[in-house]
Amino acid sequence: MHESMMWLFSMCLILGSVVGLLAGLLGIGGGLLVVPALVWLLPQAGIAPSMLMHIALATSLASIVMTSMASARNHFRLGNVDFSVVKVLAPGIIVGGLSGSVVAELVPAQYLPKVFAVIVLLLALQMMLSLRVTHARPLPSALASAAGGCVIGLLSSLAGIGGGSLTVPYLSYFGVEMRRAIGSASLVGFLIAVSGMIGFIFAGVGSADLPAYSVGYVYLPALVGIAATSMITTRYGAALVTRLPTATLKKMFAILLLIISIKMFMS
To answer: Where does the chain cross the membrane (predicted)?
Structure first.
């Protein structure tokens, strides 16, 4: 078991470096890659199938806590965070993020990958189409914004992602300037990841099949491996933005997501 854990840790170091690079380059949360990668890696480290999706989602959210915190801090320094927007979304985001772990517990384990696959499929289509808003609309009322935040938080927590792929189009639709939408989404992503992670930790406490070195459903060897390298390579990804055709890369990444979602739905 010790050897399989060390193998998993090594694989997660590689995974983290790729995730960090793509996150910096494409401005996407790493969960879209981390969850399917862990679904493939964890069984080879002896993780029980009944625990598989819960551990993948929880560990992904825990890794996003660290990367989104660094991203949010950078955007705050650049003045890209609109706190009036974050303030109206935050209550719903936190409730939705916590609710994701509750819903994940209620959904039978064999259906969770399919739920993830559908969410990723929709995100991939949105990324491929890159719909742009031509008519700005004012932000809805505080109650409607909280409801919107709840939906974003719930779907993001269920998919183990930071939610930038949902939050940026939502804010853009309501006329928030793109730079501020991305900056605000980074802070929103941190709130989603923290609330989702806490929910999955409490949901997993006392579960019989949990592996050693777990905190609730968060599997520490995988988390440390992913975080150790992703936080380093994110800055290199950001530096490559001006040198590579980002729009083309986003479409290629969306095609990869389509393949992943179809594979997970069919399996």
So the answer is: 12-39, 51-72, 84-104, 110-129, 141-161, 181-205, 217-236, 248-266
Instruction: Say if residues 202 and 58 touch (Cβ distance below 8 Å).
Output: no
d(CA 138, CA 157): 27
d(CA 46, CA 172) in angstroms, rounded, equals: 43
Predicted confidence at residue 161, as pLDDT, reads 87
Task: Look up residue 76 and give its two tokens.
Answer: 């705050």
Cα separation of 198 and 181, whole Å? 25
Mapped to the 3 state alphabet, what secondary structure does 106-168 carry?
A: HCCCCCHHHHHHHHHHHHHHHHHHCCCCCCCCCCCCHHHHHHHHHHHHHHHHHHCCCCHHHHH
Q: What are the sequence ranges of the domains in the chain? A: 1-266
End-to-end CA distance of the chain: 27
Q: How many helices (H) and strands (E) does the chain have?
A: 10, 2
Looking at residue 27, what is its pLDDT?
66
For residue 5 the two structure tokens come to 């854990």
Q: Which pair of tokens denotes residue 102?
A: 């509750």
Instruction: Report the distance separating Cα 14 and Cα 74, nearest Å.
Output: 24
